[in-house]
Specification:
Keywords: ATP-binding, Isomerase, Lyase, Metal-binding, Multifunctional enzyme, NAD, NADP, Nucleotide-binding, Potassium. Helices cover about 40% and strands about 15% of the residues. By secondary structure, it is α/β, with parallel strands linked by helices. The radius of gyration is 25 Å and the shape is elongated. The structure holds ligand NAX and potassium ion (K). Potassium ion binds next to strand 5 and strand 6.
Length: about 500
C-alpha cells in the first residue's frame, strides 16, 4: 500500500472528492473509525471526540455519529467553526444521533475517565509548530492519561517527515484515512502512532501520479501473503529453492549456521553452505539437512573457483555473515559477487568488502542489508541521523542502483523505483544473529525467483513478524534461532478486511 506525503494525500483526496463527494468520503471515514472504537475503549466512561475546525475534526463528529456501541458520546468543538460542507454534515448527524456537544477549550479533567478519546484536532494538513489552540487541546489530551485513537495522524506529528511538536498526542492506535501518512511510520512520530490501521475509503494511488516520486510503499498483510512463493506440487529439492550460503569463519561459525537456518526455515529445498575449513567442524555439528562444502581461505583464487562451481546447482547466493575482514575474504567476496550471474544478498563482512568496488555492482541483481553503521561506511557519506534515513537511502540507491535494505526500527528497502517501509518487527530482534537469519531468508526468496526488491521487502516483513511470534512464545530471551523457527508460523496471514487494514500492532 502506498504510504503518502501530505502533498500526495492532498492530490488523492481532491480526486476522490471530485469523484465521490467529500460528504460521502467523510461518512465512509466515520464508519471505519467507529468500527475501531470498542476495540480500544476501556471502562465505562464516555467516548470523547476533540474536534479541530478542519475536516479532521469532521471525522471525529462522523465517527461519533456512526458509532452504535451504546456508550455515551461527547464531542468538544468550536461552535463557531466555519468548516466544510462535509464537516457540517457530520456535525449535524452527530447531533441527531445524540452526541453531546461542548465548546472548546477542553481541559484534562474533562477527558480523564473517558473510555477513549478521538483525536480529531489536526490531520494531514497539520503544520508544526502547532497553533496555540491546537497545542492546548493536545496538552489536555496528553495530561488526561486517557487512551487515544488518533484520526489520520496523532496531532503534533508532522504528516510527511515524522517530526514531532513539543505538544504531541501519544495514541494507542491511529487510523489512516485513505492512505497511511509517511510520518506515522517514521521516527520520532512512530512512537506516537501506536497500532496503525488504514481505511482506504475508495481512494486511488494513481491520483498521486507524479507527486513526490519515487513513491513510498508499506507492505500490508495481504500483499505480503501474495509475495510468498508457493511450492508447486511437481517440485524437487532444487527447484524448491537452492540458496548457496557463503559465510562463517573459524571465529564465527555460528553466523553461517544461523544464515543456513534462516534459509531452510524460509522454505528452501536445498541449502548449501560454503565455508572456510576452520568452520567445518562447528557447521557439521549443527547442520544436518544442509550440505557443507569447505574451502581454503588462504588460497582465495581456488576458493572462488570452488564456490563458483557450486553455483551451477544453486539459484541464489547469500554472502558475508561471519566471513571476517581479512584481505583473503575480501578477494573471495569480490571474486564471487563479481563472477556470478545469480542474484546475491550481501551482508555483514561482505558489505565491508563490496564498499570499495560499488561501481562494479551498479544495477546488479544484488541486495545489501546494512545496519546504520554499515550503511554509513558503504554509502561513503558518514553517520545517518534517524531523521535522514529515508533521504540517505534514496540518495544511495539513486546513485548506485543497488537494492538496499537499511535495518532499523522501521527498516527501509529501496530500489530505483520505490522506497518500501517495513512496518513489522519488535525490539526482541535486537539480539545477535537475527540479521544472519534475515539474510538466509532473503537468499531463499531470491532462490525461489522473487526479484531482489521483492525478496528484500518480503524478507524484512516476514522476519519482523517472526520476531513477534518468537517473543509471544518465549516472552523474553528470544535468540536468533527462535526467529528462524518462527518463520513458519509468521508466514500465516489471517484473512484481511480490505475496508479496514491493520498495518501494524503497537509493540
Ligand atoms: N478531504 C477529504 O476528502 C477527506 C478528508 N478527511 C479528513 O480531513 C483531514 C484533512 O482536513 P483539512 O484539510 O481540513 O485539514 P486539517 O484538519 O488537517 O487542518 C485544519 C486546518 O488547520 C490548519 N492548520 C494546520 N496546522 C496549523 C498550524 N500549525 N497553525 C495554524 N493553522 C494550522 C490547516 O491549514 C487546515 O486549514 C484528513 O486528515 C482527514 O482526517 C477524511 O474525512 C477523508 C476525506
Ligand atoms: K488527528
Amino acid at each position: 500500500m502506498r504510504a503518502v506525503t501530505a502533498a500526495q494525500m492532498r492530490a488523492i483526496d481532491a480526486a476522490a472528492a471530485a469523484r465521490d463527494g467529500e460528504v460521502a468520503l467523510m461518512r465512509a471515514a466515520g464508519a471505519a473509525i467507529a468500527r475501531l472504537i470498542d476495540r480500544y475503549a476501556h471502562g465505562d466512561g464516555p467516548i470523547v471526540g476533540v474536534a479541530g475546525n478542519g475536516n479532521n475534526g469532521g471525522d471525529a463528529y462522523a465517527a461519533l455519529a456512526a458509532y452504535a456501541g451504546g456508550r455515551r458520546r461527547i464531542v468538544y468543538g468550536d461552535p463557531a467553526a466555519e468548516g466544510s460542507r462535509a464537516r457540517h454534515d457530520a456535525r449535524w448527524r452527530a447531533r441527531i444521533a445524540g452526541v453531546e456537544e461542548r465548546p472548546l477549550p477542553v481541559d484534562a479533567n474533562a477527558l480523564r475517565g473517558a473510555a477513549l478519546v478521538l483525536d480529531g484536532v489536526l490531520g494531514v494538513n497539520a503544520r508544526l509548530p502547532l497553533d496555540a489552540r491546537s497545542a492546548a487541546a493536545v496538552a489536555a489530551i496528553a495530561a488526561s492519561g486517557a487512551a487515544v485513537l488518533a484520526l489520520d495522524i496523532p496531532t503534533g506529528t508532522e504528516p510527511t517527515t515524522g517530526a514531532v511538536d513539543a505538544h504531541v498526542v501519544r495514541a494507542v492506535a491511529t487510523i489512516a484515512l485513505g492512505r497511511p501518512k509517511l510520518g506515522t511510520l517514521l521516527d520520532p512520530a512512530r512512537d506516537c502512532t501506536g497500532a496503525l490501521w488504514c481505511a482506504p475509503i475508495g481512494m486511488r494511488d494513481a491520483d498521486a501520479a507524479g507527486v513526490d516520486d519515487p513513491p513510498a510503499e508499506v507492505l500490508d498483510p495481504a500483499a505480503f501473503a501474495a509475495l510468498l512463493p508457493v511450492r508447486a506440487d511437481e517440485s524437487d529439492k532444487r527447484s524448491s529453492g537452492a540458496p548457496l550460503i557463503v559465510a562463517g569463519s573459524t571465529q564465527f561459525p555460528g553466523a553461517a549456521v544461523l544464515c543456513a537456518w534462516g534459509a531452510a526455515r524460509a522454505g528452501a529445498g536445498y541449502v548449501t553452505v560454503a565455508a572456510p575449513e576452520g568452520a567445518a567442524a562447528a557447521l557439521r555439528a549443527h547442520l544436518v539437512e544442509q550440505v557443507v562444502v569447505t574451502y581454503d581461505e588462504r588460497d582465495p583464487a581456488a576458493a572462488v573457483q570452488t564456490i563458483l562451481d557450486l553455483t551451477n546447482r544453486c539459484s541464489a547466493i547469500a554472502i558475508g555473515p561471519g566471513l571476517g575482514l581479512s584481505d583473503d575474504s575480501a578477494a573471495i567476496v569480490n571474486g564471487v559477487v563479481g563472477g556470478t550471474t545469480l542474484p546475491v544478498v550481501a551482508d555483514a563482512s561482505a558489505l565491508y568488502h563490496l564498499a570499495k568496488r560499488l561501481d562494479a555492482y551498479r544495477d546488479a541483481p544484488l541486495v545489501i542489508t546494512p545496519h546504520a553503521g554499515e550503511f554509513a561506511r558503504i554509502s561513503g557519506k558518514g553517520t545517518v541521523a534517524p531523521d535522514e534515513r529515508l533521504a540517505r537511502v534514496r540518495e544511495f540507491v539513486d546513485r548506485t542502483g543497488i537494492v538496499t535494505l537499511l535495518k532499523g526500527r522501521t527498516t527501509l528497502i529501496a530500489s530505483r523505483d520505490a522506497t518500501h517501509l517495513n512496518p513489522t518487527g519488535t525490539n526482541a530482534l535486537a539480539t545477535a544473529g537475527t540479521g544472519d537469519v534475515l539474510t538466509g531468508a532473503i537468499a531463499t526468496l531470491l532462490a525461489q525467483g522473487l526479484a531482489p526488491v521483492d525478496a528484500a521487502r518480503a524478507g524484512a516483513y516476514w522476519h519482523g513478524r517472526a520476531g513477534s511470534v518468537a517473543l509471544a512464545h518465549r516472552h523474553r530471551g528470544v535468540v536468533a534461532r527462535d526467529v528462524a523457527e518462527a518463520l513458519g508460523e509468521a508466514s500465516l496471514v489471517a484473512p484481511q478486511d480490505p475496508e479496514l487494514i491493520r498495518l501494524f500492532s503497537s509493540r
